[in-house]
Amino acid sequence: MADESAKELTMDETPKPKRRIKAPFGVLGMLVIVVGFETYVSYRRDFSTPYALEWSVTARSVKHVARKTQIPCFGTSLTRGGVSPRILEEKLGKTAYNFALSGAQPFASYTVFKHALAAGCKPEAIVVEFKWTALAMGYTWNERVLPEMATTRDFLDFAIATSDSQLFARLFLLSKIPTLRCREEIRKNILAGLNGTEPPRLHEIVIMARNALMNRGANHPTYNPKFTGYVDPASPFLFEKDWKCHPFSELYIHKFFDLAASLDVPVFWILPPIAPSTVKHRVEIGIEETYTQFVKSMAAKHKGVTVVDGRFSEYANEVFIDSTHMNRDGAVAFTTDLADAIKRELEPRSDTATHWVSLPKYKAQPNAKRIEDMMDSLVALANDKKKEKEKAKR
Amino acid sequence: MLFNSLPFAYFFLILLPVYWLLPKKPQNWLLLGAGYYFYSCWNPKFLALLILSTVMDYACGIMVDRIEEPRKRKGFVLLSMALNLGMLGYFKYVNFFAESLQLALGRMGIHVPIGHLEIVLPIGISFYTFQSMSYVIDVYRKDIPPTKNFIEFAAFVSFFPHLVAGPIMRPTTLLPQIQNKRKFNIDQFYQGCYLIFWGLTKKVVVADNLSPIVKELFGRWETIDGGLAMLAIYAFAFQIYCDFSGYTDAARGIAKCLGFELALNFNLPYFATSPQDFWSRWHISLSTWLRDYLYIPLGGNRGGRWFLYRNLMLTMIIGGLWHGAAWTFVVWGTYQGVLLVGHRMLKPWLEKIAPKNPADQVWWKVACIVVTFHLVCLGWLFFASSSLAQVGGMLQAIVKRPAIPQGIYLAQVTLIILPLFLVQLAQYLSKDLDIVSRTPWYVRSVFYTLCFYAFILGGNFQGSQFIYFQF
C-alpha cells in the first residue's frame, strides 16, 4: 500500500507539459460590445418602421391583453384598419382586441392566435381575415417582420413546414440581432443624421402607436381626398389573373381553423368591402369568382366557420383610402354590420353547416367620429406636446 | 455553394466537428467526400471532369516515377498536359478561337460558317487542371515522390477550400499536409476564424457594394465624363481585389480551421512600387505557377535580354488568356507584359535617378506606389471592359472630358474603400499582415465590432458570385 501511494505521489509530482488554452479576448470583448449595442437597438423605436413596429407592438399586446379578450380579431391591414374592437364591444358586450398585422400571411395569424391562447385567451368568437395578395405570396413574404413577433420555436415549425432550413437560420439571426433586422431603417437613420434631416417616418410610428392604444389594437386611417375610386387595371396586386393560394398559406388556414375547432369556438371569416370600381373589375375578369370558390372550399372543410362577406355591400369611395383599405368611417360602418352578423350567428342553432352571410348595403354611421383616427391621434399628440411645453415654461 | 451563403455555413459547421473527431485516414475520406459534394453543388455533371483529371494525373504520376526511359517519362507528362489543357481548351477557349478564326477569315474575304457550341464552363476548371498538372510535372522533375495513395491524391486535387478559385497550391506544399497527421491547434483555429471573417467582410462589404456602382458606370460608359470614368476604374480595382482576396482569405481561413496552411495569395498589391513588385503581390500562386511551369521552362532570364523580354511577354499573354477567353484579356496580358518589359528596361535608369536621401526616398516610394497603382488601374480597364471600343471610349472621356466626379458617387466609393485602405496602410507601414491579431485585446474587440457592424449594416447579402469563379 505504502509503495503504491508513494508511486502515486511520484506520478503526481512528475511535471506535466503545461496546456495553456488561450481565451479569445478580442472576440469576447466584441461580444460584450455587440450585446450591449443590440440591447440598446432593441429598445429604440426609431430604428423601426411603422409596419415592423406594428408587429412587435402586437406581439407585446398579445401577452398583456389576450387573457382579457373574448373576441380576438386576426388578419391583415384590411382588418387592422377596418375592424373596430370598440364597436364590437359596444354592440356585443364582450371584450375585443384587434391583433391583425399588416401583410400577415396565414402563418403569422396562426402564430398570433397560438400566442394569444398561450397567454390565457379564452375566445368566445374569433374574427379572422386573409387577404388574397398575402395568400398568393411565397412564404418569405413576411420574413422581415416575422422575427418581431414569432419565437424560435415558431421558426422551427415554419422551417419544418416549408422544409427550408435556410429560412430558419435567416429568421433566427434576424430575431437575435436587432441591428440586422432593422438594418434598412438604421441605414436611413444614419443618412438622415448625415443630411441633418428628421429620421424617416418616426412621426408616423408615434402616431400609429397612440392610435393603436386608443383603438384596442386597431389603426384607423383618415379620410383620403386623393382617392376617387380610380384603379389601375394593370395592377398585379389587385388583378392577378392567375390568382392561386400558396400551398403553404392553405396549410396554415386549415391549421388556424383546426385550432379554433379544437376549442369549439365559432370563427367569422371576414371578406371586407372593396372599393366599388375595384370589385367591379375583379368580377369582370373573373378573379372574384375564383376567390369566392376558394373561400367556399376552404370553409366547407371546417365546422363552425361563418363567412361574412362585405365585398358587394357597395361601400362608397369616400370610405376608402385606397382600393382596399377603409378609413375610420368605413371601419365603423363595417364593424357595426359585422357585430350584427356575429350576434345573429352566435344564437344557438342546430345545424353545423358553413354559413355565408352577405352584409347589407353600406349605411353611413352618424356617430363614427367618437372613434379616434390617425389624424385625431396626430392632433392629440400635438396638443400633448403643446401642453408639455407650456408646463415647462411655467 | 458560395462561402458567403447559409448552405455553406451549414456544410462547414457540420463538417468541422466531425472532421476533428476522426483519425487521419477517415479525415482524408471525409475531405474527399466534402470536396466532391462541394463541387457537385454547382453542377454534378462536371464532377466527372474533376474525377477524370484526378485519375489520369494519379496514374501519370505513378508511371512517370516507375519508368526510367526519359522519352516515355516525357510522354506521360505530355499525356497529362494534353488531357488537362485539352479539357481547359475545349470548355474555355473553343468558341473564342473559332469565332476569332471566323472573323479573321472573314476579313480576308473567306466566309466559313463555324457553329457556336453551347458549352458551359465548369467552375474552377482553370484552377484544378493547373494544380493537378503541376503534380505530374513535379514528379517528372523529381521534386516530389508520387503518392501511392489515391485517396490522398484525390483529396489534394479536390480540397474544397481552394477548389474553385485558388490559391493554386503546389503539390510540394499541400500534398505532404494531406499525407501527414493534422493536429488541432487553437491558435491556428482562431487565425482561421479571423481570416474567414475578414475575407467575407472584404467580399460582402467592399466588393459587393462597389459592384453595382461599377456595373452602372461601366454600363453607361458612352455618357460618363472623365471623373466618373476614373472613379469607375478605381472602384473596379478595389472590387476585384476585395472579391478575389476576400475569397482567398476565406479559403485560407477555412483551411486553417481544418489544420492546413494555404499559400498567401495577396500581399497588399496596391502598395507595389513597380509592375514586377505588383506581380509578386497579386495572385501570387498564379504568378509563381506561371514562373515555375512556363517562364523558366521557356528559358527564363537565360539567353540574353531579348529572350527574357520574349519570355516575359509570352508568360503574361498566356496569363491574360488564362483569365478568360476574350481579346480584352489578351490585351490585358500583353499590357502587363509590356509593363514588365518596360520596367526591366527602365530599371537601371530608375535606380540612377532614385534619391539617396532617406526623407526623399519616402516621397520617391510614394510616387512609385501611386504610378504603379495607376498603371495597374489602366490594366483593369482592359480587364473590366466588354470591348476594345469601350476601353477607347473611357480613355477618351478621361483625357477629353476631365471632371470632378459627382459627389454622390465619390462619397459612396470613398466610404466603402477608405476603411479598408486604412487597415491596409497600417499593415503596410508595420510590415505585418497580422497586425490586427498583435494589437491588445481591447483594440481587437473594437476592430472586430466595427467589422461586424460593417458586415451587418453595410453588407450586401444578395449572395453574389465571386468574380474569379468565371476563370
Task: Give the secondary structure arrangement, pairings included.
The complex is a heterodimer of chains A (394) and B (471).
Chain A: H1 2-13, H2 25-42, H3 50-65, E1 71-74, H4 77-82, H5 85-92, E2 96-98, H6 106-118, E3 126-128, H7 132-136, H8 146-149, H9 152-162, H10 165-176, H11 178-181, H12 183-195, H13 202-214, H14 247-262, E4 267-271, H15 276-284, H16 287-300, E5 305-309, H17 328-346, E6 355-358, H18 374-393
Parallel strand pairs in A: 1-2, 1-3, 3-4, 4-5, 5-6
Chain B: H1 6-21, H2 24-40, H3 47-66, H4 70-107, H5 125-140, H6 150-157, H7 171-179, H8 186-219, H9 226-257, H10 275-279, H11 284-295, H12 305-323, H13 327-353, H14 358-384, H15 388-400, H16 407-430, H17 435-438, H18 441-458
Give structural notes.
The complex is a heterodimer of chains A (about 400) and B (about 475). Chain A is α/β, with parallel strands linked by helices and about 400 residues long. Chain A has a single domain, classed as Rossmann fold. Helices cover about 55% and strands about 5% of the residues of chain A. Chain A contains 18 helices and 6 strands. Chain B has about 475 residues and is mainly α. Chain B has 2 domains: about 180 residues, no CATH class; about 280 residues, no CATH class. Chain B is built from 18 helices and no strands. Chains A and B meet through helix 2, helix 10 and helix 12 of A and helix 1, helix 8 and helix 18 of B.
